[in-house]
Specification:
With about 675 residues, the protein is of the alpha+beta class. Helices cover about 15% and strands about 40% of the residues. The chain has 14 helices and 37 strands. About 0% of the residues have low confidence.
C-alpha cells in the first residue's frame, strides 16, 4: 500500500484556465471557469512521486452557505482514470517528478456561482482553493448552448453595443457600455443573486435553482428593478431627477452596478426601460447566458389583460385618462438564448424577459422568460407572462371621442402596435429587424389565425374601408432641435360631394411612454375647412423653437394630434403621431495610432445649434478597455450660439479588437446628446 501523498500546495493555473474557458477578460487573478468543460490544476508534492492506480483521494466542491448533495450544491467525487463529462469528475492527466496535473470537470447542469474546492486523503482534508463557475454557451450539453461562434462573440463577449430609441419612423442608435468584464462586475452580479428574496428565504433551494437559466433569468428580471426587493434600479418617468441621475444621462452599466454595490444594495436613481434592459444584459452576459437588448417600437402596455389598448380623446383632440392603457414610442427588454425543457417541444431559442417594472408576475415585478415562438403562435397559456408580451407587440387599438354631452363614439384608428422590433446586428452597428420572430405580417392570414387562437378578434382592422375623408400627418425631412419647421395635416376628400369640416391640429411635448407634458407648443383650429370632391389639402402647423424649446422633455419628442370632424355626418377622424427632434452631432477624432497598452487621445467637439448660449455644459466619456473601467468627466461653463464645446481625453487601450468610445453631452438647453466612435485597436 502506497503512503499518503506529501502535498505542498496547489496551483490553479488561472492564466491558462481562464483563457481556455474564455473568462480571461475578467482577469487572471482567480479561477473562473464554465460548466461542462474540464479545467486543469497542478498538485505540487514536497517529496515522493504520484503513482496512478495506487494513490487515491477525493475532491469536494460546494457552493452556497449550506451545500447539499441532494440539492446538487455539493459534490464528492473520487480520482478516476478518465473524465466523466456528465458529472463532477477528476482524473490525473499528467504527472512527472513532484508535479501532478489534475483535470476536473463539472456537469453541464451544475449550479453557477462561487465554489470552494477541497481534497480529502486518508481522512485529512486540504483546501485546494476557490473558483467561480459560469454557464457555458460553448458546451453542447449546456442549456444555453449556442453553436455559432460569431453570435457568441456578440452576445457573450462583446462589452459594448447599440440600443435603439427614438421612434419607428426615426430609430436613433445609442451606444452603450455593457462592461460585463470590468473590474468587480462579476462579483456584483453574483451579489445580485445573493440579494434576491428567494435566496434570503431559502438559500439552499435558490442556489440549487441556479443550475437552470430559466430560473436565473427570472431572478435577474426581478432584481434589476427595486419594486419588491433590494434591486439595482429605481424607475422614474418624469423630469424630476434632482436627487439622482437622469436615465438619459447613463452611457453604460458599470457605474450603475458599482453604485449599487458601494451603497449597500440601495437602489440607484434613476432608470427607464432601456437602462433596465441594458443592465440586465450586462448581468446575464457576465453569468454566461447569451443575451441581447431588443427595442419594440409602438409598444403597447395592456393594463387590463384584454389584448386591446383603449384610448380616449375629447372633442378638442386632448387625451383623456379614462384607461391605464398606453402605447409607448418604444420599449426595451432583453432576449436570452436557452432551452426550455419545462415546456412542450418547439419553444427553445430566444426568450424575452423584461426587468422594467410594469405589471406583477406571480406577485413580483418581473416578466419572462417568454419564448418568442409562443408569442408568434399565440400560445398564451405557456409560462411565463406570454399574454402581457403578446399584447406589447400585437394588441388591437380602439379609440373613442368623448362628446360634451357625455356620449362617446368609436373612431377608426389605424394605429399599429409592435413595429420594427429591433436589435443590433451581429458584428456590425446596423439595425436588425426581428419583427418576424414575434409576429406574422400585419393583416396576414397567419396573423388572423393567431388572434383566433388567442381568443381575440381584431374586428377593427377587418372592417372594410369605405369612401370618405382621409386624414394623415406628414412631417418635414429635417427636424433639428433649435430650428423652426412645419408639420402638415393632409386631408383628402375621397367622395364626389363637397365636405365642410372642422380641423384641430395641436402639438405638445411628450415622454417616450406616450404621455404628454406641459402646455401646447403649437395649435391650429380651422372651423370651416372646405374640401371639394376628390380634393387634397395640406394644412401646415408651424413649430417654432421659441415655443417648443421649453415644452419638450429630455426625450426630444413632440406629440402631434389631428382631429377632423365632418359637420353633416359628424364623421370623425383622429390621427396621432410622435416626432423625434434630431440632436446636433458629436464629433470624435482619434489622435494617434490605437494599439494595445499604448496611450492615445480623442478630441471631442459639439457645436451649439441654438440661438442662445448653453450653460453648465459637461462631457462624460467611457469605453470598455479604453478608459480604465471609469467614466471621464469634464465641465465647461458656457458655450455661445454657434460656438463649439470641446474636450480632449487621454486613453490607454488594454485589449485588442473593436471598442466603442461613448460620449454624453449635457447642458441647460441640450440634454444628454449622445455620440460614439468605434476604435479599432491592434495588438
Amino acid at each position: 500500500m502506497a503512503s499518503a501523498l506529501d502535498i505542498a500546495r496547489f496551483s490553479l493555473a488561472c492564466d491558462f484556465n481562464n483563457a481556455d474557458h474564455r473568462t480571461d477578460l475578467n482577469g487572471t487573478d482567480r479561477l473562473i471557469v464554465r460548466r461542462g468543460q474540464p479545467f486543469t490544476i497542478t498538485m505540487h508534492l514536497r517529496s515522493g512521486h504520484f503513482q496512478a492506480g495506487v494513490h487515491s483521494f477525493s475532491l469536494t466542491t460546494e457552493t452556497g452557505p449550506c451545500g447539499s448533495e441532494a440539492n446538487g450544491t455539493k459534490a464528492i467525487f473520487h480520482l478516476q482514470d478518465a473524465i466523466d463529462y456528465s458529472r463532477w469528475s477528476v482524473a490525473a492527466s499528467c504527472h512527472s517528478g513532484n508535479e501532478v496535473e489534475l483535470s476536473i470537470c463539472s456537469p453541464p447542469d451544475a449550479p453557477i456561482g462561487k465554489y470552494s474546492l477541497t481534497m480529502t486523503q486518508d481522512y485529512r482534508t486540504i483546501n485546494v482553493g476557490e473558483f467561480v463557475l459560469l454557464f457555458n454557451p460553448w458546451c453542447p450539453a449546456d442549456a444555453v448552448y449556442m453553436p455559432e461562434t460569431e453570435k457568441l462573440n456578440e452576445y457573450i463577449l462583446a462589452q459594448d453595443g447599440i440600443i435603439f430609441r427614438g421612434n419607428h419612423k426615426y430609430p436613433v442608435s445609442d451606444a452603450w457600455n455593457f462592461g460585463q468584464f470590468a473590474p468587480r462586475i462579476l462579483d456584483i452580479c453574483l451579489r445580485i443573486l445573493d440579494t434576491n428574496p428567494k435566496f434570503l428565504r431559502k438559500p439552499e433551494m435558490d442556489c440549487s435553482g441556479r443550475r437552470n437559466p430559466v430560473y436565473v433569468t427570472r431572478v435577474v428580471s426581478a432584481m434589476i428593478n427595486c419594486n419588491d426587493d433590494k434591486g439595482v434600479l429605481f424607475g422614474r418617468w418624469q423630469d424630476d431627477y434632482a436627487d439622482g441621475v437622469s436615465p438619459s444621462s447613463w452611457t453604460g452599466s458599470v457605474d450603475i452596478l458599482h453604485c449599487w454595490d458601494s451603497k449597500s444594495c440601495q437602489p440607484v436613481r434613476y432608470g427607464q426601460c432601456w437602462v433596465f434592459a441594458a443592465v440586465a444584459c450586462t448581468v446575464l452576459r457576465a453569468l454566461g447566458i447569451p443575451t441581447r437588448v431588443v427595442t419594440n417600437f409602438l409598444s403597447a402596455h395592456d393594463t387590463n389583460a384584454n389584448l386591446v389598448i383603449e384610448r380616449y380623446y375629447d372633442e378638442n383632440g386632448q387625451s383623456q385618462k379614462n384607461s391605464g392603457d398606453m402605447i409607448w414610442n418604444y420599449h426595451c427588454w432583453v432576449e436570452s438564448w436557452m432551452n426550455r425543457p419545462d415546456l412542450k417541444a418547439g419553444f427553445d431559442g430566444w426568450q424575452a424577459s423584461d426587468p422594467t417594472p410594469q405589471e406583477k408576475s406571480e406577485g413580483v415585478y418581473c416578466c419572462g422568460p417568454v419564448p418568442l415562438k409562443a408569442i408568434k403562435e399565440g400560445e398564451l397559456k405557456l409560462k411565463y407572462d406570454v399574454p402581457f408580451v403578446f399584447a406589447e407587440v400585437n394588441a388591437d387599438v380602439v379609440t373613442y371621442i368623448k362628446r360634451k354631452d357625455g356620449t362617446q363614439d368609436k373612431v377608426k384608428d389605424h394605429s399599429q402596435v409592435g413595429v420594427k422590433i429591433s436589435t443590433k446586428s451581429v458584428g456590425s452597428d446596423k439595425r436588425e429587424d426581428i419583427t418576424h420572430l414575434y409576429k406574422y405580417p400585419e393583416g396576414s392570414k397567419e396573423e388572423r389565425q393567431v388572434f383566433m387562437k388567442a381568443n381575440h378578434q381584431n374586428k377593427l382592422l377587418d372592417e372594410p374601408q369605405e369612401p370618405g375623408l382621409d386624414l394623415k400627418i406628414k412631417v418635414s425631412p429635417n427636424m433639428k432641435k433649435g430650428c423652426d419647421f412645419d408639420v402638415f395635416a393632409a386631408i383628402t376628400n375621397n367622395t364626389d360631394k363637397p365636405k365642410l369640416c372642422r380641423l384641430l391640429f395641436s402639438s405638445r411635448g411628450a415622454y417616450y411612454n406616450g404621455t404628454t407634458f406641459g402646455a401646447e407648443c403649437g395649435k391650429k383650429d380651422l372651423l370651416n375647412l372646405q374640401l371639394s370632391p376628390d380634393e387634397e389639402k395640406r394644412v401646415p402647423l408651424r413649430l417654432n423653437y421659441s415655443k417648443y424649446g421649453s415644452a419638450i422633455t429630455k426625450d426630444n419628442l413632440i406629440k402631434l394630434v389631428a382631429l377632423l370632424i365632418e359637420y353633416q355626418t359628424n364623421d370623425t377622424k383622429l390621427v396621432v403621431r410622435d416626432i423625434v427632434l434630431e440632436d446636433p452631432e458629436i464629433k470624435i477624432k482619434i489622435l494617434g495610432e490605437p494599439k494595445q497598452n499604448r496611450k492615445l487621445a480623442a478630441e471631442i467637439t459639439l457645436q451649439n445649434p441654438l440661438s442662445e448660449p448653453l450653460d453648465n455644459c459637461s462631457f462624460c466619456v467611457e469605453g470598455a478597455d479604453l478608459t480604465g473601467g471609469r467614466t471621464i468627466k469634464k465641465t465647461i461653463k458656457s458655450v455661445g450660439p454657434g460656438q463649439e464645446a470641446k474636450m480632449k481625453v487621454d486613453l490607454t487601450p488594454t485589449q485588442g479588437g473593436v471598442r466603442k468610445l461613448v460620449v454624453d453631452f449635457n447642458s441647460t438647453k441640450l440634454h444628454d446628446v449622445k455620440g460614439y466612435r468605434n476604435v479599432i485597436i491592434s495588438k
